[in-house]
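The passage that follows is intended for readers who have already worked through the single-chain material. We present the inputs for a multi-component assembly, then the predicted structure in tokenized form, and finally a short commentary. You are encouraged to pause after the input and sketch how you expect the pieces to fit together before reading on.
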Amino acid sequence: MVNGVSSAAEQAEQLKQDGNLYFKKNRLGAAIDAYTEAITLCPNVPVYFTNRALCHRKRNEWARVEEDCMRAVRLDPKSVKGHYMLGLALLQRENYAEGIKALERALDLGRGAHPNSYMVEEIWQELASAKYKEWVHESAKRTLALQKLEKSCEIALQEKLVHDLSHMMDDTDEVFSSTSEQLAALKLIFSKAAEADKPTDVPDYLCCKITLDIFRDPVITPSGLTYERAIILDHLEKVGKFDPITREPLHPSQLVPNLAIKEAVGAYLEKHGWAYKMD
Amino acid sequence: MTSPSASSRKVLSKIATNRLQKELMEWQVNPPAGFKHKVTDNLQRWVIEVNGAPGTLYANETFQLQVDFPEHYPMEAPQVIFVPPAPLHPHIYSNGHICLDILYDSWSPAMTVSSVCISILSMLSSSTSKQRPADDERYVKNCRNGRSPKETRWWFHDDKV
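Having made your guess, compare it with the prediction:
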């Protein structure tokens, strides 16, 4: 190659810089053109795709977001932004299951890289709201199915009562009372079955003593107490190097993920999707 | 005190708002005994009625606490003062400022309004004499420009009362 003529990779990098500049000025069309040119020169750089996806996202062109992010995560399976925007695009077309999976992947990757970044918080917010919507959707279906089943059972019991009464003349009192007992038991069973879908308080042992919110990324201190990672790091930086409850000395390096609580939270949320609601 | 203190002027952060909403909900279900939160739509300033505990020097007396939350609550302590007339107590100044370490140097974000209230009531209950701190006049004069107790360099009287 002649001296002075830059390589394809260098040109593509320059185009990306241009694209970023256009993006900052909100000239999305120009930015997309620049990234597209960069991709033509170097089709294997995941960032060109995620940057272009970000432009499409701003324009609400979700099919294009999805396409670019798919290519980005194929090139770099660890791309936080790729998985994140892919998840958002999937949710846009109401593919909750796959969208949530992509957001969860983004959250895990993001926490590994920068546990405190704004991205992690943003991804969590999107994930929680998707999970909440999914729960609203699913629980409505469950409630309806249960109501129908309960009605059918009631009718069946009443029909049985009529049948029993017409076949035996004695002991009608007993037939009546046993039916009303059965109806009461039925009601109880169905109200128990609906319990998990009824929003109440999250148990204290699944909530951080500082945020008072359900754990997302719990860490345990040498005192045996568990806190939300972001908030305890904030405390150690701003308030002091001590455990907020026991006041024992505490350093960030002593924090260890509490995987048992994390699993317990996961299991709880699986059953009680309403707890994803953020206000 | 009606003038907004330096610590309460800024709006609450998202974390602070979220946490205060949870505290308020918990308070409504399970308020600390002897306290009543006066309902307002101001999350950043709580006014709380305190009843002196039966069998103590303050039995049958009612006081008002004013709690102002800073932008970065609970990473910073709330400002807690008695609305004058404040209880006659060796650690409570006549302008309502309270000399209690957990409100200043010993604050921890794991404490809540509810736990702070309980500490204040126990400070009242364990008092054996109804009198002002020895330096009351000097201290109150120094605070005349509306200074927040959080700006005071406290020298804590003792741990017993």
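Commentary: Strands of chain B lie at 35-38, 45-51, 62-68, 79-83. Residues 4-144 of chain B form a domain with the Ubiquitin Conjugating Enzyme fold (CATH 3.10.110.10). How closely did your sketch match?
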